[in-house]
Amino acid sequence: ASTGVFGGRHVQVAPLGGGPFSLLSILGFREGGGPPVAGDNLYFGAVAKNPADERTVIGFFPAVREGPPRAAFVGYAFSCDGRRFSSLRRLLNSTAASFGRGSDHPVDGIAVSKNRVYVYVHRDVPGVFAGAAPPDLGGSRLVRLSGALDDPAAA
């Protein structure tokens, strides 16, 4: 969703039972439907049931903050209602690309096997740079990140 200011891309959500769309609220990023913040961008959200606590959901978001300093990362946050989320925790650092996008995007979904949680991220997504991508990027690839299911920071 465009928030009406340059660099104000954000995610919209609707309640499960129906109702109007509203902007997602993330503690410390865009709280309580507050005013748009130029340079705070969430390109999209990949939200799933939290495998460590099925009463909650976990969302993964490619985020860009114009700063200073400018920073891009894939973050995750928790929610009890799918609209209001905890503060973003960095899953991995990314590269700020063009138009409020980061170079890395989470893949929707979480895999669980035994006591491990797996999350997939598309690194160095093609086409996110208006011009040529920086030469030091590793090329488009899918990476798997994992953590222990009983570790709250990993689930």
Counting H and I runs of at least 4 residues, what is the number of helices? 0
Question: What's the SSE pattern?
Answer: EEEEEEEEEEEEE
Strand content: 35-45%
Overall shape: it is globular
Number of strands: 13
The value of Rg in angstroms is: 16 Å
- Largest sheet: number of strands, sense, barrel closure: 5 strands, antiparallel
Class derived from helix and strand content: mainly beta
State mean pLDDT (0 to 100 scale): 81
Low-confidence region ranges: none
Distance between the termini: 27 Å
**What percentage of residues falls in helices of 4 or more residues?**
under 10%
Brief summary of the model shown:
The chain contains no helices and 13 strands.
How would you describe this protein?
The protein has 155 residues and is mostly beta strands. The strands form 4 sheets. Strands 4, 5, 6, 7 and 9 form a 5-stranded antiparallel beta sheet that branches. Strands 10, 11, 12 and 13 form a 4-stranded antiparallel beta sheet that branches. The relative contact order is 0.16. It has no helices and 13 strands. The radius of gyration is 16 Å and the shape is globular. The model has no long low-confidence stretch (mean pLDDT 81).
SSE layout:
Blueprint: E1 12-13, E2 22-23, E3 25-26, E4 40-42, E5 46-49, E6 57-65, E7 71-79, E8 84-85, E9 89-93, E10 105-106, E11 111-113, E12 116-123, E13 141-148
Parallel strand pairs: 3-8
Antiparallel strand pairs: 1-2, 4-6, 5-6, 6-7, 7-9, 10-12, 11-12, 12-13
